[in-house]
Design goal:
Blueprint lengths: L3 H18 L3 H8 L12 E6 L3 H11 L6 E9 L9 E6 L6 H15 L6 E6 L3 H4 L9 H14 L3 H9 L8 H6 L3 E7 L22 H10 L8 H11 L17 E7 L1 H14 L3 E9 L3 H16 L6 E7 L13 H15 L8 E7 L11 E5 L2 H7 L4 H6 L3 H7 L3 E2 L10 E7 L1
Helix pairs in contact: 1-11, 2-3, 9-10, 12-13
Length: about 450
């Protein structure tokens, strides 16, 4: 029989898994492509898929489409760790969160394949989280190393996904509506697995098939605000300055002919996964609340805010309590350590909660993890902490303050046996947080 603490940890993992399973890409694609729900376009299909769930989405589409229409051999671009052979597709590996040369080669192949589509054909575009970094196609005059250097600087500056993608769009041939522009006059049908809060299609994978509302002026403001402008590669600065002067091609906007035959549908999202997690927590007997659908900002600040929320919600609770969040925090890197935003959030929460606890405090557990199974440049999805986390790691000679100061949450949580190791899940709808208390 499990102890109360062990049961809380097991329940937290079960609730997280329910959220991940709700975004299972193959099932979502098959449902979207059912003959009674999918628009029956005429002619051939060209199928392209990119992102962390690309293989599963492409495989599901291949299984569904032959019952309706023929499709030409397609192209899949996914993270190197997720590459596998798929009948009827050329499968490419690519880097994430930083793009790499293999991804640039794959993007060029996909661009050529889509450009060959005729007006009688339909380009089926399957998009999932990570698609922006996984499909790098720098505009002429900007090298991939230039783009990598800028992306790395933005990530370290704490830029959020919206800011990062606004910049990427203006340095890419395919992002920010560029893929629709390349495919025109073919029909474009995009199925999106959203990894961004609010599910704005222009932000998901940097909006390759929809109009882009951002401008070169906004990009310059982002780079200045994040302190990146003075150190960015000269080629990038030159391109942005040319865009401000109207000498570089702006991303396509509403009203552009490229979108006359383009449609999209959002299949899964963080909000849908959070609802599935809420239902599972309720089934397990918890009085369940959703604290926020948009847990944003610095991971440490989010931990402080969330501790305040669970403290208020848990006061006087007569039943086991569950407090859930969805979101995507950021980390401004200040040290050479290893970790990711979810691991840092979990560690910071443990420090906050333990500091306010007493000997009479009830057992608790807190989980923060990425639905893709990958948190930062590590093999962990996130962290699962409890009242014993700090003691276990300190017994190994580590201190939480030092780990946070150097962004070194991974070895701290590893010493406490509190890393969540799922491996790539095949989906990506941002992050989930689960707090449980008895």
């Amino acid at each position: 029989m499990l102890t109360p603490q062990e049961q809380l940890r097991a329940d937290a993992l079960a609730i997280f898994r329910a959220g991940v399973e709700a975004a299972e890409p193959a099932r979502l694609v098959q449902r979207a492509l059912q003959p009674e729900t999918f628009e029956a376009d005429r002619g051939l299909f060209r199928v392209v898929a990119f992102g962390k769930a690309a293989c599963a989405m492409a495989e599901a589409a291949a299984a569904a489409l032959p019952t309706q229409r023929r499709f030409l051999p397609g192209i899949v671009v996914t993270h190197h760790d997720s590459v596998r052979a798929l009948e009827g597709f050329r499968v490419y590996g690519s880097g994430h969160p930083l793009p790499d040369p293999a991804g640039a080669e794959a993007a060029s192949a996909l661009e050529e394949y889509v450009r060959a589509a005729s007006a009688e054909e339909t380009v089926l575009v399957l998009v999932s989280g990570g698609g922006s970094a996984i499909l790098p196609a720098p505009v002429e005059g900007i090298t991939l190393p230039d783009k990598i250097a800028l992306t790395d600087a933005l990530l370290r500056s704490g830029a959020d996904i919206g800011e990062l993608n606004a910049v990427r769009k203006h340095l890419s041939r395919l992002k920010g509506g560029g893929l629709a522009r390349v495919a025109f006059p073919a029909r474009v049908r995009a199925l999106l697995l959203s990894d961004v809060l609010g599910d704005d299609p222009s932000v998901i994978a940097s909006g390759p098939t929809v109009p882009d509302p951002t401008t070169f002026a906004e990009v310059r403001d982002i780079l200045l605000r994040r302190g990146v402008w003075p150190t960015m590669p000269p080629t990038v600065r030159s391109h942005i300055e040319q865009g401000l002067e109207g000498k570089a091609l702006e991303t396509p906007k509403v009203g552009n002919p490229a979108f006359e035959r383009a449609r999209y549908e959002i299949l899964g999202s963080n909000a849908l996964s959070l609802e599935a997690a809420r239902q599972r927590a309720t089934e397990l007997g918890y009085d369940t609340r959703v604290a926020t659908h948009e847990l944003l900002g610095e991971a440490r600040e989010a931990a402080r805010w969330l501790h305040g929320q669970v403290s208020k919600i848990g006061e006087g609770a007569a039943r086991p309590t569950a407090v859930l969040c969805g979101g995507e925090t950021t980390v401004t890197v200040q040290g050479p350590g290893r970790g990711g935003r979810n691991q840092e959030l979990a560690l910071a929460f443990a420090l906050e909660y333990q500091g306010a606890s007493t000997e009479d405090s009830p057992p608790w557990a807190f989980l923060s993890a990425g639905t893709d199974g990958i948190d930062g440049p590590t093999d962990a999805a996130g962290g699962l902490v409890d009242a014993g986390t700090l003691t276990r790691a300190q017994d190994a000679g580590l201190t939480p303050q030092a780990a946070l100061a150097t962004n070194d949450s991974y070895p701290f949580l590893a010493a406490a046996s509190d890393l969540i190791l799922t491996g790539p899940t095949g989906t990506n709808v941002a992050d989930l947080q689960v707090f449980l208390s008895r």
